[in-house]
Amino acid sequence: MENKILLKALIAAQRNEISEYHTYSWLARRIKDEKNRAIIERIAREEHGHYEVFKRITRTDIKPQKLMVLFYRLISLFFGLSFGLRLMEQGEKAAERMYKSLKKDIPELAEVFLDEEKHEEEILGMIKEERIEYAGSMVLGLNDALMELTGALAGLTFALQNSKIIALTGFITGMAASMSMAASEYLSVREEADKNSSKSALRSALYTGVAYIITVLILIAPYFLFHNIYVSLGVMMILSILIILSYNFYITTAKGLPLWRRFGEMALISLVVAGISFLVGVIVRTVFNVEV
């Protein structure tokens, strides 16, 4: 019975290795950067070598999982090479634990285990990608939009009491702020360029501005969709938390960083700012007796 379970686990690992070989090989053919392509080709060769190790043990020829290969190909194309490959490596954690537990009984797996660890710690860390290099600019745009707009919309919700006016006010405020933030980022990076920074001031500004604008459009959408301003406020806050979670999952996965601490910090700050702004809106409406 134990032999059957072991064989099943080994075949599953073998299928995973050949699937990753096909994924890496496909990606390598589509990467323009020579350095990144060489890294991915190297990983592909190692994955195929792992497959051959398992093949000698199981004495079985295994075909790749087509859905798995397609999934990681699409993820890497749409969300970037770093994110796709890191996500794929995270899926290997269970396999790595199995290799570690079996390497005493099956010495051939010791080298496989070391290679899998090396992929994450050494090889993937060598990959350079524009969208990750400019992550700081995206953080600036997204974080500033979340802090300013969640607070502004929360305050406007109680002060104005009209969903369409709140949405339009938020839109105008957000568009003006996005251009201001993009311009500030452009000047900041251009100043750094004089100190031998390799970042492009124009690209940094674009990443900041686009991240800000997308966040603005998402956050004001509930005020166009719902008549009840408090429903709109609640949905807006939920969307802001989901934006924070999604972005932090993307960045921490692509960079190999811990998720929950970063997410918790951003979410807490956003909620505190929104709460304070809502109280300011209550005070303004009460003191000035605003009616809209």
Give a short overview.
The chain is an all-alpha fold and 292 residues long.
Output the structural class: mainly alpha
Radius of gyration: 25 Å
Biggest beta sheet summary: none
- The total domain count is 2
Helix content: over 70%
Number of helical segments with 4 or more residues: 12
Approximately how much beta-strand content do the residues carry? under 5%
The total count of strands amounts to 0
Reading the helices and strands in chain order gives: HHHHHHHHHHHH
Separation, N- and C-terminal Cα atoms: 75 Å
The average pLDDT value, as a whole number, equals 76
Which spans of ≥5 residues are poorly predicted at pLDDT below 50? none
Looking at the structure, what is the overall shape? Answer: elongated
Query: Looking at the chains present, what oligomeric state does this protein adopt?
Result: single chain
Account of the 3D structure:
With 292 residues, this protein is an all-alpha fold. It folds into 2 domains: 2-126, Ferritin (Up-down Bundle), CATH 1.20.1260; 130-288, no CATH class. Helix content is 84%, strand content 0%. The N and C termini lie far apart (75 Å).
Keywords:
mainly alpha, Ferritin, 12 helices
Write the layout of secondary structure elements.
Blueprint: H1 2-29, H2 34-58, H3 66-79, H4 81-90, H5 93-102, H6 108-123, H7 130-133, H8 135-160, H9 163-193, H10 201-225, H11 229-255, H12 260-288
Helix pairs in contact: 1-2, 1-3, 2-6, 3-4, 4-11, 5-6, 8-9, 8-10, 8-11, 8-12, 9-10, 10-11, 11-12
